[in-house]
Amino acid sequence: MADKPLKVTTIGTFDGVHIGHQKILQRVQKLAESQDYESAVLTLFPHPRMVLFGDESIKLLNTIDERVEILKSFGIKHVIVKEFTKQFANLSADDYVKDVLIDELNSKRVVIGYDHHFGKGRSANITDLKAFSKLYDFEVEEISAQDIEDVTVSSTKIRSALEDGEVNVANAYLGYNFFITGSVIKGNKIGRTIDFPTANIYIEERYKLIPKDGVYVVRSKHNGTVLFGMMNIGTNPTVNGVSKSVEVHFFDFDQDIYGETFKIEFLKRLRDERKFENLEALKLQLKEDMKAANLYIEEGHD
């Protein structure tokens, strides 16, 4: 164990890595720097409900790759993704602390919420963790209810905001713009016939939350160049679409990008998806949408 760096560790799902989570990450970083330790986050995946109850309906704010990327962006040196299995869920509290926190991570300090539960059946709590800390020689820093409630935000509130199309609310809670990551696949190319070519975005992870159907102002990058555009989420009812799609029209951009992967940020919701009488009526509306989007962009919103 001598060759393993000592760590300040925090544990959690961290779905969204929102401003409440960020407060914990900042504390971990500060402690690590002050004591010459290294910062670490232990995060679990898949979501316990997926494993224990076969719940495939749960939607998460981030894919696991996105979560790791965001956690690292806050300076966390070690992001450990622990596979949540039924076997892991059956670990006793003692084995969890000894095998994972101590032997695997070499934690010297654990920063954890007052309401954290762990071990088989989530039977152990912060009081038990403090007892284990004496046995295994590490410190516990408890994040109090007051500290957590200072930032009245939760992943559940953010999910609800996105499901209602309120990306402005979600982005405020996240502290960054909500985004999706997906690859460009071939579509029906109807957009090209009305001068609004779109890239169809395929998101492999079915558990990734997609905001409410509608039209959004979005931003992305391609080879280092910032792109703005409009995204439509929905079934394309004007052309009698059935299956749900995610399509983006980038402004002043026309390149072959099939197969490429894009990270696309949501900036503002413009309107609901609607069925128009014909393609010409849709084209007129898209022109209005583009005007509204460009006005929003010119005002310096991000």
Automatic annotation (TrEMBL):
Top EC class, one word: transferase
Pfam families named in the record: FAD_syn, Flavokinase
Cited InterPro entries: Cyt_trans-like (IPR004821), FAD_synthase (IPR015864), Riboflavin_kinase (IPR023468), Riboflavin_kinase_bac (IPR002606), Riboflavin_kinase_bac/euk (IPR015865), Riboflavin_kinase_dom_sf (IPR023465), Rossmann-like_a/b/a_fold (IPR014729)
Domain Riboflavin kinase: from-to ranges: 173-298
Known EC number: 2.7.1.26, 2.7.7.2
Reactions the enzyme catalyzes: riboflavin + ATP = FMN + ADP + H(+); FMN + ATP + H(+) = FAD + diphosphate
Keyword RNA-binding: no
Family: Belongs to the ribF family.
Protein name: Riboflavin biosynthesis protein
Organism encoding this protein: Winogradskyella pelagia
